[in-house]
Amino acid sequence: MAVWKRKWLLLLPALGLLAAAALALRPEGRPAAAPLPNRAPLILDAGHGGEDGGAVSVTGAPESGINLAIVCKLDAILGFYGRPAVLLRQEDVSLHDSDAQTLRQKKTSDLHNRAELVEKIDGGILVSIHQNSYPEPRYHGAQVFYAPTQGSPELGQYLQAALREGLDPENGREAKQIPDTVYLMNHVTCPAVLVECGFLTNPAEEALLRSDIYQRRLAAVLAWGLLTGPS
């Protein structure tokens, strides 16, 4: 089978879920779209990478790989609908400078370089994908955090509603402003959100987040929010 045919077949389940998400997101269940540019460049950031694996799941899976898998699926769906995105990383690497030696230096350099890359894209919209963790395993549910920049609160609230209505109706979490300790989201000037897709410390949710089909569902819902909402 030709490569392009295999790619289309892999996309079909996600595209069906995208349509289902559109039907599930009732007009009365979502906030009004934010006044952001209709065709603004979408920047997808798969958090962590390389030596910095981020949070570790209850089965030992690093956050970085899950982040990248979701970003790649999201990019494929957006591309199908004519909204190709810019990916800050496309493989399991850190974006640090070559002169960074310690893990702390590499993390710092990586974040500085990501912010610089985002700022070089004129009029972009940043979506950073991450996974959550907490000492107590009972916590679960995706949550969106938004940057302190114009348009970010509306985008965050819209995507949170999309995740709730299209993926997990029992999720009562609300979109919140990102803490000022999160470097990337506080050093960009464009609209930006960070999506904590779920808790790697919750066994049931961790199993979902590692599964290909759930990653596709998650990517489809986020794509629907980005395609129909404020961006």
Question: Would you kindly provide a written description of the structure presented here, covering whatever features stand out?
Answer:
This protein is an alpha/beta fold. 42% of the residues lie in helices and 13% in strands. The protein is built from six helices and six strands; from the N terminus they run H-E-H-E-H-E-E-H-E-E-H-H. The protein has helices at residues 3-24, 63-80, 103-119, 152-166, 203-210, 212-228; strands at 42-46, 85-87, 125-132, 143-146, 176-177, 192-199. It has a six-stranded mixed sheet with strand order 2-1-3-6-4-5. The model is unreliable at 19-29 (pLDDT under 50).
Proportion in helices: 40-55%
Question: Main sheet?
Answer: 6 strands, mixed
Helical element count?
Answer: 6
Give the tally of β-strands: 6
> Which sequence of strands runs across the widest sheet?
2-1-3-6-4-5
Structural class: alpha/beta
Shape: globular
Q: What is the strand content? A: 5-15%
- The multimeric state of the shown protein is single chain
Poorly predicted residue ranges: 19-29
Mean pLDDT: 88
Order of helices and strands: HEHEHEEHEEHH
What is the first-to-last residue Cα distance? 36 Å
